[in-house]
Amino acid sequence: MTASIEIRAPSEQTEGTRSQVQRWLKSVGEAVVENEPLIEVETDKVTIEIPAPAGGVLAEILKQEQDEIEPGELLGRIEAGAELQASAKAVPVKEAAPAIDDVATAALTAHAAALSGGRNSPAVRRLLSEHKLHAADVRGTGAGGRVTVDDVLEHVAKKRQPASPSTREQPAAPQSAGQGRRVPHTSIRKRIAERMVESLLHTAPHVTTIFEVDLSAVLAHRAKHRADFEQRGASLTLTAYFLAACVDAIREIPEANSRWTEDALEVYDTIDIGVGTAVEGKGLVVPVVRSVQSLDLFGIAQSLADLVARAREDKLTPADVRGGTFTISNHGVSGSLVATPIVINQPQSAILGVGKLEKRAVVVDENGADKIVVRPRCYVTLTLDHRVMDGHRANRFLQVLVAKLENWCD
Fold it and tell me: What is the pLDDT of residues 140-162, one digit of tens each?
């Protein structure tokens, strides 16, 4: 006797977060063991594994790789039973070809979804509304023909630039003779792109202020305490110092740790700082160090080391990347001197950028005389939502941050 067991997407998911099937670890007809990894699902920020809910044979796959899925959505089925679990060799299940009526029904359903906007993202729906368009007017290049932000922007740009007669007479440009390949966007990459456009063009007016900081005191402190931290199980990175300095700056300028709403500014009591972390082959993830205001430098370094290690091993949980109130982008680790990061983690109000540390010649005053010395310095930027604070408040934030770092002491 057998039973059909449903395989469903996780139901615990933050509103607005999207997921897609990244990879099935079994094929239809293969035997599965209860609780063994069966599907890899990629959310906006992390990849999670869905275990088999029962032992048996994978009988049906309803969501293919790269398909987007909703919380709790049915992904497939397992035929479970004593006979199936005891069998070492499962007979492959052949998928029947869809009937003509089924194909017609699916086409009509897809057309109706396109007309109504279907499951387009909030950013796409907002763009369609602003330009008085229907989803069916735009050629979608996303998964399953779904309309993306880039599709809408390209459609609008073409409407604003009608072709001249001479242009219409010219033949279409030939395709490149070189060989190429298409690399499907991951859910993380698509979400980053959407958030960049949404944050910059449709949500928050951005402004960036830039300061320079001398890290002589920080480097001296790090050289003195680095070995002790490592013996206690934490790597003492420069990023840890910047997190600690952000606490002082946020206490001086609390609106940097806030959320804009239509009728009020929601200022957070806790300081939960997301740290942009590049993951090879996946893009950027932002694990969050919780309650930084209650941690000493060792506690910050310990939490930071754990999160970064798990990010690079693809072992972050959805909870690790939720709920940040402020963000740091240490773009200098890859050689960048100055950058103006976009506040990708809406609805946060600010993001700190840290440039490459390098030795620079600077002029200092020694006993009333100018002297050229070499100092370890880097640029720091604060990109902010201009609705939340004005330039002088942003400058004050960086003044406090720089003072903390340049006068670091035990």
Answer: 776 556 677 667 777 877 776 55
Contacts of 289 (CB under 8 A, 6+ apart): 243, 272, 273, 274, 275, 295, 300, 303, 304, 307
Q: Which of 111, 134, 228, 386 is catalytic?
A: 386
CA distances from 305 to 176, 232, 295, 300, 311 (A): 45, 12, 14, 9, 10
Provide the H-helix boundaries in 163-317: 165-169, 187-197, 216-231, 238-252, 297-312
Residue 333 near residue 378, CB atoms below 8 Å: no
Global pTM value: 0.59
- Tens-digit pLDDT profile for residues 74-86: 999 999 874 444 4
Rg (CA), the chain: 26
Average pLDDT over residues 269-292: 89
Cis bond before residue 347 (omega within 30° of 0) = yes
Marked catalytic residue, from 67, 390, 392, 410: 390
**Cβ atoms of residues 184 and 361 within 8 Å:** no
Instruction: For Cα atoms 112, 118, 122, give the angle at the middle one, nearest 5 degrees.
Output: 155
Tokens of 139: 């050629």
137 is catalytic: no
Is 228 a catalytic site residue?
no
Sign of the C-alpha dihedral computed for residues 271, 382, 200 and 267 taken in this order: positive
- Can you give the pLDDT at residue 102? 47
